[in-house]
Amino acid sequence: RETSRANLTRMNTSAASPAAHDAARQAVEVVETYLRLHMIPDPDAARAYCDPAIEIRFTGNRLMHDPAEATQFNKARYKWVKKKFGPTHVVADATEDETVVYQTGTLYGEWLDGTPFEGNRYVDRYHVKRGKIVKMEVWNDSAEWLLVRAGLAKL
Prior knowledge:
The protein is an alpha+beta fold. The protein has five helices and six strands; from the N terminus they run αααββαββββα.
């Protein structure tokens, strides 16, 4: 929570209207709550923070339309996975109609064979409109790490 407040404070609050600041704060709350629920994993509870027409672009440009699809994808790649939150950033010019939020950090967990991992960087971009996530885009280092494990790449 402190990280989010720090990034909201760094948002140009002198130029931002009180409404923009409130929209940014609400969008961060929506995104971080969604992520906590999604990483339990509890896609049903996470869905409450999503617009019914949500578009989720997962790693590899995989298109999904429900948090449960992302949960299923994760189950096929990881024995278990969690996110260690880093900074949450709000793009300037936040409004109630649209706020763009970036949530960054690292993944940790176990690959399907039980090998533990940590420090796997991720960046998630969210478009929040009127308190609901309408678009989510996910990038992380997992594919690169899997290539290294398969002997096809070096770090």
